[in-house]
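Q: My labmate handed me this sequence with no annotations at all. I'd like to see what the chain might look like in three dimensions before we decide whether it's worth expressing. Could you predict it?
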Amino acid sequence: MGWYLGVLKKYATFEGRAQRKEYWLFVLFNFLISASLLMVDFVIQQATNQEFFVGMLLYVIYTILVFLPALAVTVRRLHDTNHSGWWIFISLIPLIGSIILLVFLCQEGDRQQNKYGVNPKARVASAIV
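A: Here is what I predict for the chain of 129 residues:
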């Protein structure tokens, strides 16, 4: 949960790098929270017999609030693999683009400093020692 909150604290920080663990734990917790909110919204919708959109209100509010941090951590993850944040737009190409972006997000980050900053793993390791 600390990794998720760490991403939220860097709300709109597009500079720097994000290691795989930070990115994928954010994605995991974001998915779990979204799924939970969808279930709560569904229960509310069934209990009140409201329209579908009214029943999705919590999920929509959460999605809007988390959009910018999710975008920022994705850009920082791309930076860790030495790719520009603009590569996120490759996902607009149907199927192939999303696969390419997924490959970039799954790759191990550069071990050395790159043009986007210091290796975040090295920073964490040096802080522990």
